[in-house]
């Protein structure tokens, strides 16, 4: 059996490889005889001709696509190419978009089936059925008479350490490492990649949930420390990397795990510099101190905004602004670089409140900031609560650049774009202590390349 796995990312290339399909590929490689080809469109100059050529060259039984809502249009185009070049193949979508909107996805003309949620075991079972989705747990599909058959949901994998490491050898890791900008504040010349040590999140932020729960459940499942350290050794030996970023949603939630990991990483002395995402309310000096001794150089924090009312009423973030100040102080005391993620343009947020967020961000002693315009993703609580305020088609949403709301309850899109520009200018150029950072990026070739990629998102 031959399977093509496609990552239809043509906009906003980043240095983060598509771990979802690389996990699937690694699992199938180990557990079956299936032949897997990856078509990663991220760095292709002519992504669709590349795909057309690749899919025409062989006869595929299954063509799988990994789809975030932001990639909807490109995924549809890629699926049409799949049907055209391989009319007998099952075109199967997986990933966050297919998981939260399975019916809408199946209503698209070139999608035959969707895999809901975590899919290593689902895909293996499908291969075992010769590509026939009938009776495969976790799959919904279109029948010949045009109806949708919904197989029962797939239980979550209990032991994540039983999974093989992502098949990174199937993508262009050199290009990825050169484009990897996760730790630019610490050192733009680092060559690194992303790792995931856990799946699941217990929190309820409205702009995110229940998507993550539908994908990976509410309980955090964690790989063993030994398994993660093994992956790090592999990253060093196989790809010569010297840095990594944990992309886990709530990396520091299990203190004992993090402390054990840090102590053992320090002992192994692999020379890695690394970073992770943190929730401000979980930060303590003891924890970060142990991580710093093991090579931690940067933390990123979802701060979202400087107005408690918005954090509580709109985002249900369950963090108080004082937590953020305290966490940043601890990190700075340990000489860590800190990145902050902010959102502007929530429903009911006033211009004064956005200005407050901009001032709050600029005054915090953090090193990097990303300001995104609040976007209710279909399938989230924020979408359910505010969908009446949205104007336009979700496939046309541009998640980085413009507001999708069209209502007097939300600041106009043009004003938000202007405020976003103002936020970046104030943060980077009008704050003298950050100017050296900007200069640091612009004095190395790698730094400039990474900065150009980042700018696409601004
Ligand atoms: C790292 C990350 C990124 C990275 C890299 C993206 C990537 N996919 O590799 C970057 C920074 C580039 C990124 C950007 C964005 N991201 Co992002 N990102 C993540 C994060 C934190 C981890 C992704 C990951 O590697 N997961 C681990 C792997 C194993 O899981 P997975 O990819 O979902 O794959 C599993 C299943 O989904 C399924 N599956 C996946 N693909 C396929 C394909 C087939 C054929 C099958 C059968 C199954 C299948 O099986 C896999 C194994 O079990 C997730 C949150 C999360 N915890 O997953 C958000 C997440 C995917 N991002 C999200 C969003 C919204 C975005 C952005 C739009 C905006 C933003 N907020 O930054 C942009 C879009 C970029 C673009 N170019 O379009 C949402 C997606 C929601 C949605 N409805 O689409 C998520 C879920 C976060 C959230 N809770 O809202 N992101
Ligand atoms: S935003 Fe982060 S903490 Fe909140 S629910 Fe999503 S993953 Fe969990």
SSE order and pairing:
Blueprint: E1 2-7, H1 19-31, E2 35-40, H2 47-57, E3 62-66, H3 72-85, E4 90-94, H4 96-100, H5 102-106, E5 113-115, H6 120-128, E6 139-142, E7 148-150, H7 173-179, E8 192-195, E9 198-199, H8 211-216, E10 221-222, H9 225-239, E11 243-246, H10 255-268, E12 273-278, H11 285-293, E13 296-304, H12 308-314, H13 321-333, E14 337-344, H14 351-363, E15 368-373, H15 381-386, H16 413-429, H17 435-442, H18 445-457
Parallel strand pairs: 1-2, 1-3, 3-4, 4-5, 8-11, 11-12, 12-13, 13-14, 14-15
Antiparallel strand pairs: 5-6, 6-7, 9-10
Bound molecules: cobalamin and iron/sulfur cluster.
What keywords describe this structure?
single chain; 458 residues; alpha/beta; seven-stranded mixed β-sheet; six-stranded parallel β-sheet; 18 helices; 40% helix; globular; binds cobalamin; binds iron/sulfur cluster
């Amino acid at each position: 059996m031959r399977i093509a796995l496609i990552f239809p990312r043509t906009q906003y290339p980043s240095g983060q490889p598509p771990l979802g399909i690389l996990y699937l590929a690694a699992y199938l490689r180990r557990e079956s005889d299936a032949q897997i080809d990856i078509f990663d469109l991220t760095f292709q100059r002519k992504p669709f001709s590349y795909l057309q050529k690749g899919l025409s060259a062989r006869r595929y039984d299954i063509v799988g696509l990994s789809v975030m809502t932001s990639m909807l249009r490109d995924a549809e185009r890629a699926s049409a190419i799949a049907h055209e070049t391989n009319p007998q193949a099952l075109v199967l979508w997986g990933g966050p978009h297919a998981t939260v909107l399975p019916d809408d996805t199946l209503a698209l003309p070139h999608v035959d089936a969707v895999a809901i949620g975590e899919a290593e075991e689902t895909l293996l079972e499908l291969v075992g059925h010769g590509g026939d989705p009938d009776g495969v747990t976790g799959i919904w599909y279109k029948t010949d008479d045009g109806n949708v058959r919904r197989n029962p949901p797939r239980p979550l994998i209990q032991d994540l350490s039983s999974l093989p490491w992502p098949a990174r050898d199937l993508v262009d890791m050199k290009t990825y490492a050169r484009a990897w900008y996760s730790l630019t504040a610490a050192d733009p010349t680092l060559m690194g990649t992303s790792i995931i040590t856990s799946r699941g999140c217990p929190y309820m932020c409205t702009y995110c949930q229940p998507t993550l729960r539908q994908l990976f459940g509410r309980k955090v499942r964690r790989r063993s420390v030994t398994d993660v350290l093994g992956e790090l050794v592999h990253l060093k030996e196989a790809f010569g990397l010297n840095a990594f970023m944990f992309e886990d949603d709530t990396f520091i939630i299990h203190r004992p795990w993090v402390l054990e990991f840090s102590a053992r990483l320090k002992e192994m002395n692999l020379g890695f510099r690394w970073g992770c995402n943190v929730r401000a309310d979980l930060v303590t000096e003891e924890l970060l101190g142990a991580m710093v001794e093991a090579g931690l150089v940067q933390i990123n924090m979802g701060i979202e905004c400087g107005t408690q009312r918005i954090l509580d009423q709109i985002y249900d973030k369950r963090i108080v602004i004082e937590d953020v100040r305290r966490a940043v102080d601890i990190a700075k005391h340990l000489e860590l670089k800190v990145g902050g993620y902010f959102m502007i343009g929530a429903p009911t947020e006033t211009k004064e409140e956005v200005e407050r967020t901009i001032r709050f961000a600029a005054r915090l002693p953090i090193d990097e900031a990303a300001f995104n315009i609040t976007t209710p993703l279909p399938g989230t609580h924020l979408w359910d609560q505010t969908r009446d305020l949205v104007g336009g088609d979700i496939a046309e949403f541009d998640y980085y650049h413009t507001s999708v709301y069209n209502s007097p309850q939300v600041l106009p899109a043009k004003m938000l774009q202007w405020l976003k520009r103002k936020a970046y200018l104030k943060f980077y150029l009008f704050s003298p202590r950050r100017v050296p950072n900007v200069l640091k990026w612009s004095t190395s070739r790698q730094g400039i390349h990474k900065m150009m990629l980042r700018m696409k998102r601004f």
